[in-house]
Amino acid sequence: MALYRRLRLCGILMGLGLALTAGAGCIFTPRDPEPPGQSVEYVNDSDPGNVVYNLEQALLNLDPAGYQTRLSEDFRYEPDSGTLANYPGVDWANWGYEQEVAFIQDFLGNVDGVNPNLNLELIEGDDSGAGTEAFVRYISAVTVESGGGEIKYRATVTMEFKIDGTFWRLSRWFDEQGETDPDTGALLPTLGQRRGAFAASGGG
Amino acid sequence: MTAAVIRRPWPLVLAALLGLCLAVAPDARAAEADADSTAASGTLDALLAGLAQGDSTLVAALLADTTATAAGDGYLTGWTRKPSAVSSSGIRSTSVGVGFDNVLNFRDGGSIAQSLKLNHEDYRSQDKIVDKRDFTMNYSTSSRSALRGGLNITQSWSEDEVTTTSGLTNINKRDYRSANANVRRDSLSTFGVLHDFRLDGAVDDQKGEQQGQRNDISAARLSGGLSSGWSAAEWLSFHTGLYAETESGERSLGQRTDPSSSSGDSLRAGMYYARGRFAGGVTLRYSNFEKRYLDYNRNSNGVIDTVNAVQKVVEELETNDATTLEWTNGLNLGRLSLRSRVSKDFTENAFRRSGVGRKERSQDQATLDVGLRVSRRDSVSAGYGYLWKWDDQVYQGAVNPRGKQINYKRDLNLAWIHDLFENTQLRVSALTGLTQDIAVGEFNVNDRDRLDSSFNVTTSTQWPGGVKVDMTFEAHRVEDISIQSERSANNNVKDSYEFSPGYVWPLAPWLELNQVFRLWIQYTDFVFSEYEDVAKVDDFNRRGNLDTKVSFTPNRRLRLTLQHNSSVKLDGSKTATDAAGNSYYTNDSSQKINKINVAVNWKVMPWLTLEATTFKARDLKDTFGTSVQTTERYSGDLGIGGSVDKSFGGGRVIKASVRKMFAHGPNVQEAGRDYWDADIKINWSF
Lengths: 204, 686
What we know:
Shape of chain B: globular
Oligomer: heterodimer
Strand order of the largest sheet of chain A: 1-5-4-3-2
Radius of gyration of chain B: 33 Å
Distance between the termini of chain B: 51 Å
Distance between the termini of chain A: 89 Å
Radius of gyration of chain A: 27 Å
Number of helices of chain A: 6
Low-confidence stretches of chain A: none
Largest sheet of chain B: 28 strands, antiparallel, barrel
Number of strands of chain A: 5
């Protein structure tokens, strides 16, 4: 009889434990995940170097939203002299955030692929995140795949960054000049040519 | 705090240490009353003055003089000298070293201990030589005195020279000197409150060079602590602790030299009780520090990042504030016991130059454990754990935080222990725990959950004859769930089952048999494997192990061990699932590993032991694909050697071991195929 009582007590306690476990099930339920989708992995924009990395990721993965996120609201773009000469009718003085967002959406939506290397070579500047504003001069190279062919762009670019409250953002992109292709020696255009063509066709 | 630059602190510090030493040496003041002590303390003064002047000849002469005093029954009551020599040779390096230790004991209980060690190490597989010299001297006053003191002098010198395969030589040098003095007073009573007090002063001086970059430190440090306790009642007591530290000096990093300083303090207050069925306490701790120092430019993760930084070395100011509140309680109600712990921690850490900026961390933690002795043969227990912690960060130059990174954990465990019958116990346990990483803000790709559940049944038997039998069954499920779409393709559920019986059977006093069998299978189910873009295939891994060990010990001098390890591994992938939900798998690979170990240990004489070990292994692996690929690998080694552990009269000890190793197999490098492993150590105390 004593054995029966002990077993019953143990049964009750184990049942209580299992009921506790089941009752607590709601606090041991994982969250519902999102189905696999966009696989672009950005890093936090904690310094200008990371912003440049994220811009490359956005171009590489044809993700205009990712590119837009890295732009400061007072972003401005300045073209090189070749682009100015080719597209004199474009209102370059007022090329800001909205124009850049419109351009990048059109650009990434109409190419087959982009292979960017924005910080191919550091000429001068500090992208380590010291201070609250930064400027760097890079040799940038971008190869665009479109219509079964490749178009190369290469330029000396000045980029300026600043902290937008929480994160670093790109506030200025200045294409200083086109650079020669190290393989062929030919002078390559800047990405400003793409912007000019887009604006001239009525975009922006 | 203004940083005071100390360029050559040694004379100043040694003079201070000398003064402190004289102040705390109680018998030094009684010198007039004791002629022997007069001579001894005079010798001690001269010894310390010699140290202060860096005159090693004088110190040696004084030590010799003190030895002469020891011959009588004066202040010096004992002097132990211990020279030693060490030689070591192994697969990695060969080294030789010598040491010399001295301990002087004084009549009042005080002592001086000195140690000198020199070591030279030459690496076999790379062009690397490391030389080290370490010297320490310690003086402590009598432990019988209420007021105690001590001083320590340390010098540690090392040079590490490495020549890379490309011919580049890197030299790392470090010459570190430190002097430390301390005074301590315990159990000082004022108005019923007991106090312990401690004051420490130290000077550190380092001349360093690392890959051509200077790394020098020169600093003086002062710290003090006071802890107090008051018993308000037999069951209630209060304790407080106050500690403060300040440091000032200068630091050189690369080409730059700047003042460095730090200051910090901490306060601890607690109330502790033990009355009737309750026992526990509440503790509050608060600490903070402020440090100024030269540092390399660091990014937002605190990692050195000087690649594109204009200013590679920066003058850093780091501040830290931390608060902890904790309550622990225990309640005993006969067969029922409850234990609980609740704590809250908050820390703020800020940098003036590092990209880390300002970081805040918070942690709330609670645990509750309940145990019940149901009957003489049954007991049950349950435990619940809760952890909520987060960190947030305002990057350098930003005004808004990036968003909290939250870590939320809770787990529940249940256990039932039952004496099945005599010498046999059954343990049933279940555990479930959920860990969540929750990122608030823009960067939430790290959002993930991990649910870990297990059910375990174990029986263990231990008969009086020494026979032990254990049997375990465990079912285990782990769900790894990434919440965001960027990483959810890898979401998976792993179910594993394990069955592992084992026993130890002493067949005779000289023969023992030990066998363990383990069967384990794990199925991995990728949650989104049916998605077109997800290249994940469900799979299984099966493992079987049988380890057998036979130990012969025919007498106290001979031991022989035979061991066989057999392992089978099968890996496969899911190929299809039918309409009824049955899954079909195909084998991807099959691997069988067999290993035999033999070890003999023979104590020829009490001080001489001969040893021999060998193993032979065969690894056969079939990989199934369009065709079957088979790899068969053999490996093994043989080691023969002996060891000597002999003591002679007069405190002389010699320890040596020599071992010749031969090895072969696919993972054996050239240096490991044939080498000697030898260690010799000689000590002599007199």
